[in-house]
UniProtKB/TrEMBL annotation:
This is DUF4159 domain-containing protein. It holds the Pfam family DUF4159. It comes from Neolewinella marina. The keyword Signal applies. Residues 1-22 form the signal peptide. Gene3D superfamilies: Domain of unknown function DUF4159.
Length: 222
């Protein structure tokens, strides 16, 4: 499964063909993870379409602009090489859901978690259930995820202030492979949304989209 997912990702990044219709089944979709517990997993509805469009322009990818919503415990999870998770509140995984997500990540999938303010204490507990033997570690600023097509010498960019804490990027590693990148106190997803949603200045939105593109590029190339 890991080999299959990596080949799909590399083929996508290498694609130089003309764009297919937006509803083409052949085009890879970004995935949005749906979870239980009451947290708003559906936050930032315009974020992933904008990120997909940006990657298509900047990286030469051919993502479908409509993302796929996938339950954490579903076998459909394995159809998405890259999955995004966000929200403001509680996150609960059943034992079966945690096992499914673990198998997905060990098998070659990649999870990007973006704390939309308030999910941090819950998502850490949930991911400890998925990988009880490893914990999040803060990534150094020279980690390759910050230096793909775009370079971020200070790590993950700060998009929204919230409590004023510095933005941080954390990772979960399995057998030396980064399987989950967690952007904390940054709110990348807010920066991916339509300009009218948060009225962020162009340079802030550009930084958010560029960092998002880095996360996708790294996930498919590592």
């Amino acid at each position: 499964m890991r080999t299959l997912l990596l080949l799909l990702g590399l083929a996508l990044l290498a694609s130089a063909t003309a764009p297919a219709p937006a509803n083409s089944a052949a085009r890879l979709q970004l995935g949005l993870l749906k979870y239980n517990g009451g947290g708003d997993w559906y936050a930032n509805p315009t974020a992933l379409p904008n990120l997909a469009a940006f990657c298509n322009r900047a990286l030469g990818t051919d993502f479908a602009l409509d993302y796929g919503t996938v339950d954490v415990g579903s076998a459909e999870l394995f159809n998405y090489p890259w999955v995004h998770m966000t929200g403001h509140g509680n996150v609960v995984f059943s034992s079966a859901e945690a096992e499914n997500l673990r198998n997905y990540l060990i098998g070659g999938g990649f999870l990007h978690i973006d704390d939309n303010y308030g999910m941090d204490p819950y998502v850490r507990v949930a991911m400890q259930q998925v990988f009880p033997e490893v914990s999040f570690v803060e990534l150094p600023f020279d980690h390759p995820i910050y230096h793909q097509t775009y370079s971020f010498s200070g790590g993950v960019p700060k998009i929204h202030e919230h409590d004023g804490e510095p933005a941080r990027g954390y990772g979960l590693f399995w057998e030396d492979r980064l399987v989950c990148f967690y952007s904390y106190s940054s709110d990348l997803g807010d920066g991916w949304e339509d300009e009218s949603v948060h009225n962020d200045p162009p340079e802030i939105r550009a930084a958010a989209l560029q960092m998002g593109a880095n996360v996708i590029e790294f996930a498919f190339k590592q």
